[in-house]
Task: inverse folding
């Protein structure tokens, strides 16, 4: 797409100011490929550092060097048997939650959106719990539970989306309200199941409600990773469309976005991603809220950087939160969802108050 | 006026509405490259609806819209966005983009999904910012500038699109005298130099008289008059449409039609 410098239709005219134009004066005011590469490299290294620290500490301290070199050592067994799958799971789950949060926030044009707040995670958890209770005896439970989580997350998304439509258009604020109501509804439905099933399931249900990375298998890590990376690709392809959607649906359409198709695509992608995550780790709240928000404050709102940076930031944040969950009162483990919610709830209030002030000011 | 340029936009027998309500009935106009059409009329006359239909946001019940000789419906969204730019009345932005980033969004229809803005795109954005006197604000967050500045940012975004036709819904409603004059002067320059065709809805009849080649006067969704400002902005037409007496004279400074309220106000 190389065009002559500022071609005009009449061909003769030159724009005023083009001659005196110096790209340097715009440095920092827009995203360049170089800034994006440098930022992602730094974030990527930070994630690796967090992962190494998380691998070393825990109920027992292990030596990473020995774990990697001596296959007969206890360090090796702990690292490959427990720490590595757990760190990988924390990283991919956090990455998915943050990416989904960033995408949903763009879709509803509101920085308070997130898989949990829109009721998608709650739906997924309910699906998983019902499947677990009904199919616990069957041999296919390991497949049925995540499938049921997807299906419920997807259905939950569609219902929330439908209810938020006013005269054929999505009202972002209505969507948020409907989501909050649905989230409460799923919470109540899960409690109801909890109160009628036998004691045997109680621990599993608490696991889904609070979120945890207790003893993940490599198979689960692989499943979430495959779906997660496909989801990342779908979202990143639409990063520019998300920028344009920040101006409003009509404005995005005027700039060439096929709004309905993009909206549907992002909703399906995020539901599948949330379904996958919930089916292995339960509801881990607020990661999708905090991470994109901090990234936006630090790096700007351009989704071409916001999405990949949130993926890395979500991975690092969640692995760190899980480390805190493991070591805070070791050897007892806290549910990681409790840690993220403890950080997240005050943060949510902070964002609410900040947004409120901004809308009063404008 | 120059009526030899090719037709940029032709709207014929347009009827449209929302649900049961008919908002526009049998409206038509023809806009040639380089012309500025002002759509005027009271609140609720259907001005914004007309723009929404021409921008493709709303499908009409009946009637045809042709952009550069092709039916509007035959364009895909991206191709349309390279020819047609729209600036709505409300210009809200959800996140903290910089002014430059918002203007660069106007380049999106010219870029592939993985392309970053090139030097050329930056030069076009810079030129648009320069035209509207916004270069100094380029780095500022869009939330932290005034409403009038934000309106100009959105107009600059539309220019960065390098459209053939610009649809402006009340572009100067909240601007002060100086910026109203500047913005219309800038758009008239573009009409002359790039054959840009402009449709602007306006409440300001004097601005319509001064800057428009043609005026479309709407009332309750119907065209009451269509033609040059002299033909349309007559005391009779305006009394019929606004149901209030007006004085129509000539502005001695520039010879343009000038409209003043002619009602008599006195203490009872």
Result:
């Amino acid at each position: 797409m190389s065009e002559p410098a500022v071609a005009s239709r009449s061909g003769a005219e030159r724009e005023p100011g083009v001659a005196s134009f110096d790209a340097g004066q715009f440095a920092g005011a827009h995203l360049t490929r170089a800034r994006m590469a440098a930022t992602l490299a730094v974030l990527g290294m930070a994630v690796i550092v967090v992962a190494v620290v998380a691998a070393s500490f825990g109920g027992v301290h292990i030596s990473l060097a020995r774990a990697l070199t001596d296959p007969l050592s206890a360090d090796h067994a702990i690292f490959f048997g427990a720490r590595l799958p757990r760190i990988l799971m924390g990283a991919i789950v956090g990455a998915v939650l943050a990416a989904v949060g960033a995408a949903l926030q763009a879709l509803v044009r509101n920085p308070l959106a997130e898989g949990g707040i829109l009721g998608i995670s709650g739906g997924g958890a309910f699906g998983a719990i019902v499947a677990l209770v009904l199919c616990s005896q069957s041999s296919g439970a390991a497949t049925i539970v995540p499938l049921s989580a997807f299906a419920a997350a997807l259905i939950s998304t569609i219902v929330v989306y439908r209810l938020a439509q006013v005269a054929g258009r999505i009202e972002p604020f209505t969507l948020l309200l409907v989501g909050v109501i649905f989230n409460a509804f799923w919470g109540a439905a899960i409690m109801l199941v909890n109160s009628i099933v036998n004691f045997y399931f109680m621990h599993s249900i608490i696991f889904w409600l609070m979120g945890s990375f207790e003893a993940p298998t490599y198979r689960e890590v692989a499943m979430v990773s495959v779906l997660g990376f496909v989801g990342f690709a779908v979202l990143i392809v639409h990063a520019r469309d998300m920028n344009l959607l920040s101006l409003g649906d009509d404005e995005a359409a005027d700039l060439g976005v096929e709004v309905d198709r993009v909206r549907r695509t992002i909703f399906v992608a995020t539901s599948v991603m949330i379904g996958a995550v919930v089916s292995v780790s339960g509801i881990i709240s607020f990661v999708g809220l905090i991470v994109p928000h901090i990234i936006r404050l630090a790096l700007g709102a351009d989704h071409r950087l916001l999405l990949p940076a949130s993926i890395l930031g979500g991975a690092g944040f969640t692995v760190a939160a899980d480390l805190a969950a493991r070591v805070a009162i070791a050897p007892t483990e806290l549910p990681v969802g409790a840690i993220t919610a403890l950080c997240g709830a005050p943060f949510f209030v902070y964002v609410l108050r900040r947004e409120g002030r901004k809308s009063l000011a404008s | 006026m120059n009526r030899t340029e090719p037709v940029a936009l032709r709207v014929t027998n347009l009827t449209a509405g929302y649900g049961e309500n008919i908002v526009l009935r049998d409206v038509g106009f023809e806009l040639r490259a380089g012309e500025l059409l002002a759509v005027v009329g009271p609140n609720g006359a259907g001005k914004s609806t007309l723009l929404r239909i021409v921008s493709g946001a709303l499908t009409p019940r009946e009637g045809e819209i042709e952009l550069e000789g092709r039916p509007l419906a035959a364009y895909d969204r991206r191709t349309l966005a390279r020819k047609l730019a729209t600036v709505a009345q409300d210009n809200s932005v959800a996140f903290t983009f910089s002014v430059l980033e918002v203007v660069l969004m106007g380049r999106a229809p010219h870029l592939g999904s993985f392309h970053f803005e090139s030097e050329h795109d930056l030069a076009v954005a810079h030129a648009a910012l320069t035209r509207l006197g916004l270069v100094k604000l380029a780095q500022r967050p869009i939330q932290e500038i005034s409403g009038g500045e934000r309106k100009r940012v959105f107009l600059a975004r539309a220019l960065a699109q390098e459209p053939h036709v610009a649809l402006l819904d009340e572009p100067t409603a909240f601007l002060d005298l100086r910026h109203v004059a500047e913005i219309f002067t800038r758009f008239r320059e573009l009409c002359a130099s790039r054959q840009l065709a402009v449709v602007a809805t306006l409440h300001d009849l004097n601005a319509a008289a001064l800057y428009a080649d043609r005026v479309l006067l709407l009332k309750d969704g119907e065209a009451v008059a269509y033609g040059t400002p002299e033909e349309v902005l007559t005391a009779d037409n305006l009394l019929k449409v606004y149901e209030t007496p007006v004085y129509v004279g000539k502005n001695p400074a520039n010879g343009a039609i000038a409209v003043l309220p002619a009602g008599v106000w006195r203490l009872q």
About this structure: The longest strand of chain A covers residues 165-166. The two ends of chain A are 39 Å apart (CA to CA). Chain A has 14 helices and two strands. The longest helix of chain A spans residues 74-108.
